[in-house]
Amino acid sequence: MTAQRIDGKAFAARLRERVGEAAAGFATKAGRRPGLAVVLVGEDPASNVYVRSKGKATVAANMESFEHRLAADTSDADLLALVDQLNNDDAVDGILVQLPLPGHLDEQSIIAAISPDKDVDGFHVINAGRLSVGQSGFVPCTPLGCMMLLTDRLGDLSGLEAVVIGRSNIVGKPMAQLLVDANATVTIAHSRTKGLASVVKRADIVVAAVGRPEMIGKDWLKDGATVIDVGINRLPPEPGADKGKLVGDVAFAEASEVAGAITPVPGGVGPMTIAVLLRNTLVAAHRNAGLTAPEGL
Ligand code: NDP
């Protein structure tokens, strides 16, 4: 079998287009565009790239982008003051503080200070709680994007065996919750799981969110499994190259011999994250303006 390639890039482009159209519709009704504020503290090069591409994507989706770049030595108090200002700014529907923050800052208290109704990243404990008890809130962008790819590919997930590898608050745990809510039978595996390969082998759906290059080989997979690879790992550069290749947590080529469908890295889950961020911002804008968010986004 040769697995079907799940084209996250194309799916994300379609989602961004629909969000952009809906954002234009929102502007007509509300008299303003949806607004996303992104806060970057320090000069981390990867974060810099993410923030720039989020800003561009926000503008391309007919939304206002507010970028706040703060010095690496910004204090907790100054960052909290900015978050407070954004919480109270009616032009701002979504607030994203780019992680990781420099080590001297208290990440948890900064996230806790963001208004849950503007927490488009879905990292606030109130939104984690809402997801856990089945209330509508904001779901972290990466797992929600994975879910969109899964339902697009498989339709109804009822009764399917799903194994999520990784239990972080931003990917693994919310992913597992979304799969349970979709009536899959879910196992969460992690670094202490015994016999991981045989656990994964049971799965109709594998979501890998580990951060270990090409850890999952074809022997781990059930025939026809749907594989969502969240991992983004950079290999050491080949001689003469300045950057190493990006790979996922799954050995793509060999896994493709066994899986039914699989996301590539890059071009799979990665592009979904920004598209879902824009989707969450659009939903936030509707809620903040007392309007009903469009269906099916
Ligand atoms: P974390 O480091 O927070 O979590 C990794 C998880 O993997 C932990 O639960 C850890 O277990 C588990 N783990 C580590 N080693 C093993 C192992 N040998 N066997 C089984 N489980 C293991 O990472 P994140 O959840 O933040 O991210 C995971 C990956 O996804 C990374 O590569 C990251 O770059 C990528 N990512 C991609 C995004 C995208 O947009 N595509 C967005 C977010 C993340 P334990 O809890 O026991 O330590």
Number of strands: 11
Separation, N- and C-terminal Cα atoms = 33 Å
Q: Which class of secondary structure composition applies to the elements?
A: alpha/beta
- In terms of quaternary structure, the protein is single chain
- Level of helix content? 40-55%
- Residue runs with pLDDT of under 50 for 5 or more positions: none
If you had to describe this structure to a student in words, what would you say it looks like?
There is one protein chain. The protein has 297 residues and is of the alpha/beta class. Helices cover 41% and strands 15% of the residues. It has ten helices and eleven strands. The protein has helices spanning 8-30, 45-60, 76-87, 107-113, 125-133, 141-154, 172-181, 196-201, 252-255, 269-288; strands at residues 4-5, 35-41, 64-70, 94-97, 161-165, 185-189, 205-208, 226-229, 233-234, 246-247, 261-262. Strands 1-11-8-7-5-6 form a six-stranded parallel beta sheet. A three-stranded parallel beta sheet has the order 3-2-4, sandwiched between helices. Strand 5 (161-165), helix 7 and strand 6 form a beta-alpha-beta unit. The protein is globular. The site of NADPH dihydro-nicotinamide-adenine-dinucleotide phosphate has 25 residues, from helix 10.
